[in-house]
Specification:
Blueprint lengths: L1 H27 L5 H6 L3 H25 L9
Length: about 80
């Protein structure tokens, strides 16, 4: 589960940074959607990335307390 936790965390960070860049890009008048810029030619792949980010957020929401050493000082 440690590996899955790391993957979930990375995907959630990527998703959060991407949404921040989307907001900044819309204010600056550009397309700063990193996922779209990387895989824009393949909308199905883009949707899969967004789905994985959303599923990772759900998994972290429900499993973070028991897997995080900071939240659970007794260990994993």
């Amino acid at each position: 589960m440690k590996g899955m936790h790391k993957i979930e965390f990375i995907l959630v960070v990527v998703g959060g940074l991407n949404w921040g860049l989307v907001a900044l890009g819309s204010w600056m008048g550009g397309n700063w959607n990193v996922v779209n810029l990387l895989v824009g030619q393949w909308p199905v792949v883009e949707n899969i990335v967004y789905l994985l980010v959303g599923l990772s957020a759900l998994m972290l929401m429900f499993s973070h307390k028991k897997e995080c050493r900071v939240c659970n000082p007794s260990g994993m």
